[in-house]
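Input record (one chain):
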Amino acid sequence: MKTKIVTLEEGLEEAVGLIKGGDVVAFPTETVYGLGANALDKEAVKKIFIAKGRPMDNPLIIHIADKAMIDELTVDVSSQARAVIDAFMPGPITVILKKASCVPDEVSAGLVTVGIRFPKHTVAREFIKACGLPICAPSANTSTKISPTSAIHVYEDMQGRIPLILEGGDCQVGIESTIIDMSGDTPTILRPGAITPQMLASVLGEVKTFSGEIVVAKAPGMKYKHYAPSCEMVVASSVENAINAYNEHKALNPVILAKSEYIAKAKSLIDCNYIDLGKDDEEVMRNIYASMHQAQNKYDYIICQDFGDEGVAKSVMNRIEKASGGKRV
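The corresponding structure, as predicted from the sequence alone:
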């Protein structure tokens, strides 16, 4: 199979034809690029799992282009869920709701719930609207690998596995959507993202974050290894620890991923390879996956700053901890 990258103007008709014909298409969102298929066609949905090498018990998120589609795909939507939808959609949030009978078990991994997302990205919305169908989509990468934030990232990982990639520029959020479970009595964040607990609490009054053993995953990113580069990655608790790890692994051509200030301090102490992620947490969030792609292509050992547990930094660290397998220096 030959994989093409096309713009929306060049390839919309072909992309819609592929979706309606039961195939898959990669497309941009504001968070990461997704690998989409007709969410109502279980055979098409299976092609996502095959292309990614994704476990079938890892549920998918349905992407929509109109809030009216929510009532076609779900049942028993609470007033609290409506409040979250009205406050944050379109945007980088996924809401877990009880699914309607039209949603195949292949999408929900056999669960009675399903995640719904209304992306903000113009290309995503125009693509989904032109399809006239809900599009289920995980990130457009092979299972466990780094999520893609550009069309080139998708191509490098999935060429030959999928027919078409819609080009939409670099993703402006940079990590996957916040997932909040609104199907039960207490709103619960299952995956952190750009929409923080504080932002959700301002609408809901009370929100909790899931913690505990995961037996059945209600949302992507909970149960399996994710976001991992092809080389070893560790988290450094301090600049000094980063430098020590760098010196210890010089034979592996190491690199430090960190904020501008952290890099400046490291450079004052050692001559090192580095990738500057930006000056603040939002820049780090936008740049982290692209920098991990760059690092794995050029270096053999990645040392990443610990960004802390406040606001979106906590969401970034959720990805970094999974990518590093929890390894710290």
